[in-house]
Write a structure and sequence with these properties.
The complex is a heterodimer of chains A (about 200) and B (about 220).
Chain A lengths: L1 E5 L5 H9 L17 H4 L3 E4 L11 H11 L5 H10 L15 H13 L5 E5 L7 H16 L3 E5 L12 E6 L2 E7 L4 H9 L2
Helix pairs in contact in A: 3-4, 4-5
Chain B lengths: L2 H19 L1 H20 L4 H32 L3 H7 L4 H31 L7 H26 L5 H29 L5 H27 L2
The chains are: A alpha/beta (about 200), B mainly alpha (about 220).
């Protein structure tokens, strides 16, 4: 898990958008999973942005069913499982427009992990989320990291991921200015989980 | 996943959202209704005169009303940046284009169905030519409007004044189709001349612009 840190305007979100293929790099080349062709890699990517990337007029379940279908997943259980994973009730028959900000964030994370991606790009997943929910999300991300997924996470709250992140990448004016390795492991994650 | 399966689920999603919000249908209907009422009170026409001008009136009303729906269709995708979720997925761009076009076609078709009795009553219309030609002109003309509108709507969504830009791009490119739609409708209503050439032109126009849209849409979708 890579934490991408830096001041506002440092280029953190832009970096994620470049990796997600939403922006073309102004120079240089992008290769993901040994491939320079992003089209072939898209099924392996999960992206969560600042905005929820969800339809307000649909329920959580309907949203996930639609986005799952874009990845060729037509099984309702997949969306339900993703909702339960982030602590939401799939039976909740409420439109996303009526969700609280925290619930939207959780559902947005559920959307990003629907396709079981190998690379997960998360842009400030803890913004507007209460501390308890943020810890729950941290545990989930830690377990995903332990299962072999690569996570790039932009945040202004690095303390939440202490003991979980493997490396912090500091950015300034669009460039990586510092990289700090951490030694995170399942053991340290469990220790972090055990904290009240 | 196939183009058709993604097309089907995207279309179903759009129809469900429109059914719940009725944003596009309500605003289109209100706009078209205003045009019909205002023109009917502005002119005191005989039945013959009505038949002469109704073709132009109907299609101008539908063209302006369609722009409302076309703006709505992409505005939904921009809210919460949902379009980006589609862009990062492996789903084919053509499916999105076709689903949006078919969705808009259905919305305008519903509008046509609702407006037809009003046009008949307000303008005292009765077709002298064969009615099937009117139906054919409605279907082909509707597709001509929405296929270009959907494509150029997608092109203009990232601009600041997209509501203004869409008609500015769409109207000039729709002029040949509009002339054919009005020609076919007027010929059929008045029974003068043949609508055949106009209908063939519309069919060719539809095929050409549908293929162009399909070919270019991925570039438009993935543009920054």
């Amino acid at each position: 898990m890579y934490l991408i840190l830096g001041e506002n305007g440092a280029g953190k979100s832009t970096l994620l958008r470049v990796i997600a293929g939403l922006i073309h790099p102004s120079h240089g080349k992008l290769a993901i999973l040994d491939s320079g062709d992003l089209k072939t890699v898209r099924p392996q990517l999960g992206y969560m942005a600042h905005a929820s990337m969800l339809y307000d007029e649909l329920s959580g379940r309907e949203n996930l069913a639609y986005f799952a279908a874009l990845y060729g997943i037509r099984v309702q259980a997949t969306g339900d499982r993703a909702m339960r994973t982030v602590g939401l009730d799939p039976e909740l028959d409420r439109r996303v427009g009526q969700y609280s900000q925290g619930m939207r964030q959780r559902l947005s994370l559920a959307r990003a992990i629907l396709n079981d991606p190998r690379i997960l790009l998360l842009d400030e997943p803890f913004s507007n989320v209460d501390i308890g929910s943020a810890r729950d999300m941290t545990r989930l991300l830690g377990s995903m990291r332990d299962s072999g997924k690569t996570i790039f996470l932009v945040t202004h709250q690095p303390a939440l991921l202490e003991g979980v992140a493997d490396e912090s990448v500091y950015m300034s004016a669009g460039r990586i200015v510092e990289r700090v390795q951490h030694r995170a492991s399942s053991a340290t994650l469990q220790a972090a989980e055990a904290q009240p | 996943m196939s183009v058709l399966s993604v097309l089907r689920i995207t279309l179903a999603k759009d129809l469900r959202m429109e059914w719940r919000s009725k944003d596009a249908i309500n605003s289109m209907l209100f706009f078209a209704l205003l045009v019909v009422v205002i023109f009917s009170f502005s002119f005191d026409l005989t039945a013959d005169e009505s038949r002469q001008i109704a073709g132009g009136l109907i299609w101008v009303a539908l063209l302006f009303a369609a722009v409302v729906a076309l703006n709505q269709t992409w505005a939904r995708e921009l809210r919460n940046q949902v379009l980006d979720a589609y862009r990062v997925s492996p789903a084919p761009a053509e499916s999105l284009f076709l689903a949006k076009t078919i969705g808009n076609f259905l919305f305008v078709a519903i509008l046509e169905l609702l407006m037809t009795p009003l046009f008949i009553v307000f303008y005292n219309l009765r077709s002298i030519g064969p009615v099937y030609q009117l139906i054919l002109a409605s279907v082909l003309g509707n597709w001509a409007l929405v296929v270009n509108g959907t494509f150029f709507g997608a092109m203009s969504i990232r601009t600041r004044s997209r509501e203004v830009l869409l008609p500015l791009i769409l109207f000039p490119i729709s002029i040949p189709a509009l002339l054919a739609m009005v020609g076919a409708t007027t010929s059929t209503l008045t029974g003068e001349g043949s609508a055949h050439l106009s209908l063939v032109f519309l069919a060719v126009y539809d095929v050409v612009f549908t293929l162009l849209g399909l070919f270019l849409f991925e570039t438009v979708l993935q543009a920054e």
